[in-house]
Specification:
about 325 residues, mainly alpha, 2 domains, three-stranded parallel β-sheet, 5 strands, about 50% helix, binds adenosine monophosphate, binds tryptophan
Length: about 325
């Protein structure tokens, strides 16, 4: 890859905790595949294993889930010749940048991060410090690549705002080093809701497995989960997230997968019942996931996985290392 031809950089990261679900896929991963094709743009898709460590992980599990996620990146169609696919801990600059940015972060702004408040459940006495400073590590991820655009789900908007604030503060205090990143939040599918609890977003940490469909669910599991998906007591297929969160969520899922607009789908389903919607959706989801699952099985235990990781890490180290050196120099640290 020749650097001079790129004008823009895209960066995004996903934590290797459990298998990706439809929310991760439709809200984030699926769009990555389009972004890798963007003109004059170099993309970096990272597996953020250091972020995963902010909550207690079983080491063996973390190891496996990291490889699972890289295999998932490849299975959904990310191509190591088009995008840089790598693991965060393979690029030491991330940890170093996080410290340098910590020194310009403020307690007040960090205390306002809603994800920390949610995850620590208000018990600041026992909550991990890593969980608290997690958004600074994330800011470093983004800023090290002089990223112009960051595709994420809506829940990450506040963290991105922090990354922008830190970049502006650093540029003001130490010299113009960072590109100010913009969030890229897809309107349709930015928030896929839980199948059993459509008022809340689909989440890997949900209590019931009927909340989510993972990318590796069998056709039987997909059928079972969608059949059980919560709808409402009317029988009209209409997009109305406030009053009909379940049905609206199913329409959103179908829309993002098939590329049909919501209003096209509403028209298509006119006069039909929820049974018809679920039946069609089961087919749409199963057919869409089948080739992804086949490719996943092919590569999960292949050399291709490690080849991809080495290639991605080499390029990531090059770009991130350059920015880190600029940061250190600007802050007055001696370089040999
Ligand atoms: P996480 O697994 O929470 O680290 O999320 C990984 C990526 O998927 C992030 O970009 C999230 O914003 C996105 N994401 C997670 N859950 C959902 C959801 N239910 N709907 C849409 N996007 C989601
Ligand atoms: N915090 C993000 C999440 O939980 C993951 C993440 C880490 C990320 N570093 C990033 C996303 C950089 C975008 C850019 O979903």
């Amino acid at each position: 890859m020749k650097e001079c031809i790129y004008l823009n950089r895209i960066f995004s990261g996903i934590q290797p905790t459990r298998v990706a679900h439809l929310g991760n896929y439709l809200g984030a991963l699926k769009h990555f595949v389009d972004y890798q094709e963007a003109e004059n743009t170099e993309s970096f898709f990272c597996v953020v294993d250091l972020h995963a460590l902010t909550v207690r992980q079983d080491p063996k599990e973390l190891h496996e889930r990291t490889l699972d996620l890289i295999a998932t990146y490849l299975a959904i169609g990310l191509d190591p010749n088009k995008a840089n696919l790598f693991v965060q801990s393979h690029v030491p600059a991330h940890s170093e940048a996080a410290w340098l940015l910590t020194t310009i972060s403020r307690m007040g702004e960090m205390s306002r991060m809603t994800q920390f408040k949610d995850k620590s459940k208000g018990s600041s006495e026992t909550a991990g410090v890593g969980l608290f400073s997690y958004p600074i590590l994330m800011a470093g991820d983004i800023l090290l690549y002089q990223t112009s655009q960051v595709p994420v789900g809506e829940d990450q908007k506040q963290h991105l705002e922090l990354a922008r604030d830190l970049a502006e503060r650093f540029n003001r205090d130490y010299g113009d080093i960072f590109t100010i990143p913009e969030p890229m939040i897809n309107k349709v599918g930015a928030r896929i809701m839980g199948l059993d609890q459509p008022e809340k977003k689909m989440s890997k940490s949900a209590e019931s497995e009927f909340n989510y469909i993972t990318l590796l669910d069998t056709p039987k599991q997909i059928e079972k989960k969608l059949k059980r998906a919560v709808t409402d007591s009317e029988n009209e297929i209409r997009f109305d997230p406030e009053n009909k969160p379940g049905v609206s969520n199913l329409l959103t899922i179908e829309s993002v997968i098939t590329g049909q607009s919501i209003s096209e789908l509403e028209q298509h389903y006119q006069g039909m019942g929820y049974g018809a919607l679920k039946k069609e959706l089961i087919e749409v989801v199963t057919d869409h996931l089948r080739p992804i699952q086949e490719r996943y099985q092919e590569i999960r235990y292949s050399d291709e996985l490690f080849h991809t990781l080495r290639k991605g890490a080499a390029r990531a180290n090059e770009v991130a290392g350059e920015t880190l050196a600029k940061m250190k120099k600007a802050m007055g640290l001696i370089q040999l």
